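Backbones bend. To wit:
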Amino acid sequence: MQAPDGPDRHDPPARPAASGSAPRGASLIVTLVAATFFMENLDGTIIATALPQMAHSFGVHPADMSLGITAYLLTLAVFIPISGWAADRFGLRTVFASAIAVFTAASVLCAATSTLPAFAAARVLQGIGGAMMVPVGRLAVLRATPKDGLMRAIAIITWPGLVAPVIGPPLGGFITTYSSWRWIFYLNLPLGCIGMFVALRYLDNTREDATRRFDLPGFALCGLACTTLLYAMELIGSNDTPWPLASALVAVGVVAGVAAWLHLRRAREPVVDLSALKVKTFAVAMGGGSLFRISISAVPFLLPLMFQVGFGMNAFESGLLTLAVFAGNLLMKLVTTPVMRRFGFRPVLIVNGVLAALSLAAMSLLSPATPKTVIVAVLFASGLSRSLQFTALNTLSFADVPKAQMSGASALSSTLFQMTMGIGVAVGAIALRLAEWMHGHDSQSIAPDDFSVAFLIVAVVGLVGVADLFGLARDAGAVVSGHRPRKTRGA
């Protein structure tokens, strides 16, 4: 049985707060979590444009450097599920501050390595730290923010997941061109030190259940399922796919996933608590919301390829164009709360979900002859819709989840988020391969028409996710959004 929220018995009593008011330092906590999320998401994509220089430093082929990205993403997917148990067992402040310390130290190690195996090992360590930061940081925000302030808080911590994949490649290219790839990782050092100070100063070391046992079978099954499925999809989206190996990995992943699901449902103290899926709003955000995240996550992969390989632009021109998506993300943040208060979750998610899918489909109409102003307008519109959808889904996820289930819900949400990020990139690669097959040529001669088909496939994935949103109640999440449905006449 879970214990009620409360400070660690070794900590001084927390200052009393007025009913409905945020705890001390709540704004700093939200800002801190947003900053750590940004570091974690940025490090997953920023090295993409630095891979050739890194390969030269390590004396390996550039293609071999994919190990640095894969090792990081797989480690995140494997270790995120134990973050909830760690927070319950050791306390929010202890785990979050330790995660920042591990992530920062691993970043320094990444910058100081001189061989690929050493770099991959440092990336694994960095992934462990990142896996703890993501769900535990969100949990800290959820506990530090009253319901009526949840929309604004979630909006702030959502932008790293939107912005980092967009600005990561051009920023990495800029640092690599004008300095050294090692500064990509050294920049985390001052940010990490500031983050640890704020976490230790303002976070309470609350625990849900300090006696909760570690679910080793659940952790092993979840890790096996995540690793094999993500790696299989990466193989399927690559050139010269080893189909026997990919098929075997898919089979193992599916079996491990089913076994993990059955185990987590029956275990008394599972590594990931699935009970939050009984909450309708959370279940819908995890179901249809995951399909939307998959479609959106394919965009940062497809856009630079389309601009550089399909349209013949250089890396700098490509990076400048993708910043239009970033501009749309930021502008929408200014009006997200009023929009949600005016219309409510259900109408916004359905209508905006369709618009987001249409904006992806519109990218299929772009060609080398399309004026730059039109390209910018399409990307800007896509940034607007995806920002609103991301924030609304992430807020709705926890709108109705009881406080006692927040830890498990946060871990499950973060696991699925990381999985969908990796799957989205793989889906983009698979869609491109399907387009090449349809047009009857190999991947060595990618044409602009291939990207048109790929974006249409990705748009369909996002559109399918909208269907799940029709199951929401009309007043879903009204406590958080502040929306008050109009009464019908005669009521």
